[in-house]
Amino acid sequence: MKSSVKQWYQRRVRANTANLTNNILLQNPQILQQAQAVQQQAQQAAAAKNNVKSRGGVSEQRYAELLAVIEELTKDIKPTYAGNRMAAERLKKGIALARTLARDCRVEAERIALSNN
Q1: What is the separation, in whole angstroms, between the first and last Cα of the chain?
Q2: Which of 23, 41, 76, 96 has a beta carbon 3.0–4.6 Å from 102's, enabling a disulfide?
Q3: Which of 16, 32, 101 is nearest to 64 (CA)?
Q4: Phi and psi dihedrals of 52, rounded to 5?
Q5: CB-based contact 106:44 (threshold 8 Å)
């Protein structure tokens, strides 16, 4: 009986967290646009990475760093909406870093693609 209550509680917490995050993102379009821009750049970098071979592991290292930064961003979203100013600052810095890394990954992938042709 206890495990089913625990599972129900965990599902409920996940559902409430997802709803809260979605509602807050919809209320703050600037953060939503930035998050979508970072996600789009990450997807472009991933697509470019899949299409070209890495030269010396540099692009793989940057891509891994980009994924780590994006993972860290997810940890700061809820505290930001709860009003934590430090988390908001970390989120802003993380978004800026992720945009830079995504741009670097895309440029590196394009450079490798051109050199392979």
Answers
A1: 63
A2: 41
A3: 101
A4: -130, 160
A5: yes
